[in-house]
Amino acid sequence: MSDIIIKEVEKACKILKSGGVIVYPTDTVWGIGCDATNEEAIKKVYKIKQKNSSNPMLCLVNDHLMLKNYLKSVPKESTKILQEAVLPTTIIYNHSINISKLLLGENDSIGFRIVDNEFCKRLIDKLKKPIVSTSANLSGYKSAYNLKEINTKILKEVDYVVNLPSTKSCDSASSIIKINLDGTISKIR
After folding, report:
1. How far apart are CA 35 and CA 132, in angstroms?
2. Which domains does the chain have, with CATH numbers?
3. Residue 115 in contact with residue 124, Cβ under 8 Å?
4. Model-level pTM greater than 0.85?
5. Strand partners, 3
6. Are the C-beta atoms of 71 and 134 separated by less than 8 Å?
7. How far is residue 73 CA from its own chain's centroid?
8. Which residue blocks in the chain are alpha helix, DSSP H?
9. At what angle are helices 3-17 and 118-127 packed, to 10 degrees?
10. Going residue by residue through the chain (189 aa), what tens digit of pLDDT does each one get?
11. What pLDDT is attached to residue 167?
């Protein structure tokens, strides 16, 4: 791991642990994020994005083991979905636990994505918690694929902007799949 990634993980983790909000590169678009268990930080993300809190945000985890800590049970369908996925894929699961209620939808549902970005993986490893990931744009505007595309209003309101180039693995937001209560699968995006 390069020295610059190590330094940026240290800085970003310190901000997240203190309840702060960061702008950071993911494996898709640039994101606004915080500790997914810190309600005050989550409220700040909603305010920065000018987003309605009834519209839940997704979270990033680093692997299936972490996912098991935030769901009552991980449906077997999710493994198959992720094995067959070509692009980064967010799965909406029901019956989450140990996560802020501000992030939940109907049936305590929440979107989790197992991230494939070195910076994000290292940050989540260090924080030992999921991080909120919502596109670094004002609600209703297009997503930012590089730092230059992010609205300066957002950059001024967050507590830290990660100083790394984008290392995305695709040119779009993640696909979104929902595992319904009856075990059927719905493609959202």
Report:
1. 6
2. 3-187 (3.90.870.10)
3. yes
4. yes
5. none
6. no
7. 20
8. 3-17, 39-49, 64-68, 76-84, 118-127, 152-157
9. 40
10. 589 999 999 999 999 999 999 999 998 889 999 999 999 999 999 999 987 766 778 999 999 899 999 999 888 888 888 888 878 899 999 999 999 999 998 888 999 999 988 999 999 999 999 999 999 988 888 888 888 889 999 999 999 999 987 655 456 677 788 988 888 888 887
11. 58
- CA nearest neighbour of 134 among 37, 22, 39: 22
DSSP annotation string for 112-149:
EEE---HHHHHHHHHHTS-EEEEESS-TTSPPPSSGGG
Q: Which residue has the tokens 């999921």?
A: 130
Rounded Cα distance, 17 and 21, in Å: 10
Q: What is the pLDDT of residue 166?
A: 61
Q: Return d(Cα 49, Cα 161) in angstroms, integer.
A: 15
Residue type, 29: V
The set of residues, in sequence order, having a beta carbon less than 8 Å from that of 82 and lying 6+ positions away, is: 89, 91, 114
Closest CA to 181 of 88, 105, 84: 105
